[in-house]
Amino acid sequence: MNYNVYAKCDKDLCITSAKGAGKGGVALLWHRQLDHLVSPLPIDDDRLIGVQLQLSPLQYMYFIQVFLPCSNHTSLIFRDYIDKLYDLWCSYSQWGTVVFLGDFNAKYTADSPVTHQLEQNTPGTYLRK
């Protein structure tokens, strides 16, 4: 094996659903030659994982893989995950570059009602135009 992986399955893993598709999880893959530079992050969530990549002795990148709730969850649950992403950014951005990647289960347009709701009804702006 030339690669290593860090993965978590969704704790609500269900093989079948009303849509006929199972749920999944999140995973990050890297070449084993980078093992001495990659460290998993202690994120206690089954929809978020992350690794730290050391670029030089004092320079880091943080990769956060996300699988955010889809539209059959409430907007409050989705908003909670946006808050978690913000908290992760606050925690790790002081030490290096933070990259979020994965399935955000969101559509962003300038005239989206959800976008306007988030911007008007919350103390901070989650999505910027």
From TrEMBL:
Gene3D superfamilies in alphabetical order: Endonuclease/exonuclease/phosphatase
What is the recorded name of this protein? Endonuclease/exonuclease/phosphatase domain-containing protein
Q: Which organism is it from?
A: Mya arenaria (Soft-shell clam)
